Amino acid sequence: MTLDVIGFGALNLDRLFQVNQIACKDEEGYIENLTESCGGSAANTIIGLSRLGLDTGVIGKIGSDMEGKTLRNNLSNEDVNTDGIIKSGEGRSGTVHGYVDRKGHRALYVDPGVNDKIDIREINLEYALNTKLLHLTSFVGESIKAQESLLENIPDQVMVSLDPGMIYVTKGIKSLEKILYKTDILLINQMELDILLSPLKDLDVKINTILNYGIKMLVMKQGKKGCLVTDGSKTHLLDAYKVDCHDTTGAGDAFNSGFIYGILEGKNIKESAMIGNFVASCCVQELGATTGLPLKSAVDKIR
Ligand SMILES: Nc1ncnc2c1ncn2[C@@H]1O[C@H](COP(=O)(O)OP(=O)(O)OP(=O)(O)O)[C@@H](O)[C@H]1O
Ligand SMILES: [Mg+2]
């Protein structure tokens, strides 16, 4: 079976502790509440695409622990194929521990766990390359090498999209070259693009520099302002939808779902970016990265 989209990135269980205070050195605080949710940028985008009716799968790594089970079950429940998930005999599944006090201040600790231990030899290439599009997001550590190796084997007809996030852009453009040369669609926010291409200042120069890597579509996400999308010959600036924003967690991942969906449905870059803005607007109206992600019927109504 050929899947429509496979996501390849870190899989994390997010634990958000509401605390009376964020304890500093030698201080003590207590936990008032705990909420758990499944995260990881690629997984969020893949869940969005599955809700939109596409056949989806994930490549990632989990430990043989409860967290790993929860991560896998969450994807299965969203109708995502999990055959590409590697289960490690040792090590912890990835977790993110967030502490939020009564004023909303946050402290975050990431435990990448086995996310950072993916070897290309563990990936079933037949599974990984039997897709219309491969969507890549970041890893903290060395698993970027497995992504690079996978791309060395990728057939021309498989499209590649990349959302590098802060983790990859801070590595610098040289470190990302191998991936960028294989990327068709770059989905990035404005600040990340500035960091990736610093010290360039002029937007046209930035766009040309990116397109010189062979990237066919560049989307620059601009938060509540919307986005810019270009293929080098046409550039569009699209306003975000005016909605009641409650939580922007996962807005960028939701945007990616909408944009990729549009492209795979044969829409042009402007139409696809509109769908991206729409899916992201559904996301920000609810709490959490995936709660508000819409179904195909809602998206097919937008004009
Ligand atoms: N307040 C808002 N109202 C409506 N839409 C929004 C709002 N904030 C963000 N969006 C939508 O979400 C999209 C992605 O947001 P943003 O530019 O913050 O991406 P990002 O920084 O990659 O997000 P993330 O922090 O999830 O990685 C925007 O292009 C826009 O469509
Ligand atoms: Mg982002």
What does this structure look like?
This protein is of the alpha/beta class and 303 residues long. The protein has a single domain, classed as UDP-N-acetylmuramoyl-L-alanine:D-glutamate ligase (3-Layer(aba) Sandwich). 33% of the residues lie in helices and 25% in strands. The protein contains 11 helices and 13 strands. The strands form 2 sheets. Strands 5-4-1-8-9-10-11-12-13 form a 9-stranded mixed beta sheet, sandwiched between helices. A 4-stranded mixed beta sheet has the order 3-2-6-7. Helix 9 runs antiparallel to helix 10. It binds adenosine-5'-triphosphate and magnesium ion. The site of adenosine-5'-triphosphate has 21 residues, from helix 9 and helix 10.
Mind telling me the CATH superfamily name?
Answer: Ribokinase
CATH topology: UDP-N-acetylmuramoyl-L-alanine:D-glutamate ligase
Percent range for β-strand residues: 25-35%
Spell out the helices and strands N to C.
EEEHEHEEEHEHEHHEHHEEEHHH
What low-confidence regions span 5 or more consecutive residues with pLDDT below 50? none
Multimerization state:
single chain
Number of domains: 1
Helix content class: 25-40%
Strands in their spatial order, largest beta sheet: 5-4-1-8-9-10-11-12-13
Rg to the nearest angstrom?
A: 19 Å
Features:
binds magnesium ion; 33% helix; 11 helices; binds adenosine-5'-triphosphate; UDP-N-acetylmuramoyl-L-alanine:D-glutamate ligase; 4-stranded mixed sheet; 25% strand; alpha/beta
